[in-house]
């Protein structure tokens, strides 16, 4: 059995201001830094072999803050995704030292759902303008995209293939995997792992800085309560 840990980044400065964020690259707030450290303490004793995060700084900050709390004492090392560079990087430090590191991969497919024309707008003001129901549909429905942005279905079309082609084989090979990502990119993954319907995913909320742990065995995922 191997473990998959999913975590939404801690509160960002735009979460704090209640602004639609999507692909805008906003760092964590002071509160978000504390949430990430607290989330890290909750999983500090679970061995982690490999870390995936998005290309956005709020998820990356969260990944490093989580790993700073980890009991292994291993150093998180960024593996840049250029293949040639990756091959070279493998040679620039000793295999003895490599045993004391945990590789971190930046994966654009795990970026937040692109929010199109809503990015930078205030969530409450947008709900006042277009109606709470319409804005809830844009924010939580499966197949209705916000203006100029991605639906959850479109987000899943990039998160799930990467997850299946790269993350699942790691779990199969006995590796425990930690993914630091975003509210909606993680909703698309949890929807898939738990087989949620389009109706059920409307209610799925992923809190900031709270690890979700799944046990993986023989092709199936079971959520473990912390
Ligand atoms: O602004 C965003 O990118 C997301 C996550 O904060 O918004 P929502 O709360 O609608 O999922």
From TrEMBL:
Keyword Phosphoprotein tagged: no
Pathway: Carbohydrate degradation; glycolysis; pyruvate from D-glyceraldehyde 3-phosphate: step 3/5
Binding-site positions, substrate: 8-15, 21-22, 58, 112-115, 123, 139-140, 183-184
Sorted UniProt keywords: Gluconeogenesis, Glycolysis, Isomerase
CDD domains (alphabetical): HP_PGM_like (cd07067)
Gene Ontology MF term list: phosphoglycerate mutase activity
Class in the EC hierarchy, top level: isomerase
EC numbers, comma separated: 5.4.2.11
Entry superkingdom: Bacteria
Catalytic activity of the protein: (2R)-2-phosphoglycerate = (2R)-3-phosphoglycerate
Active site (catalytic residues): 9 (tele-phosphohistidine intermediate), 112 (proton donor/acceptor)
Residues the UniProt record annotates as site (Transition state stabilizer): 182
Keyword Isomerase in annotation: yes
PANTHER family, alphabetized: PHOSPHOGLYCERATE MUTASE (PTHR11931)
Function: Catalyzes the interconversion of 2-phosphoglycerate and 3-phosphoglycerate.
Family membership: Belongs to the phosphoglycerate mutase family. BPG-dependent PGAM subfamily.
HAMAP family: PGAM_GpmA
Protein known as: 2,3-bisphosphoglycerate-dependent phosphoglycerate mutase
Organism per entry: Simkania negevensis
Name of the gene encoding the protein in the UniProt record: gpmA
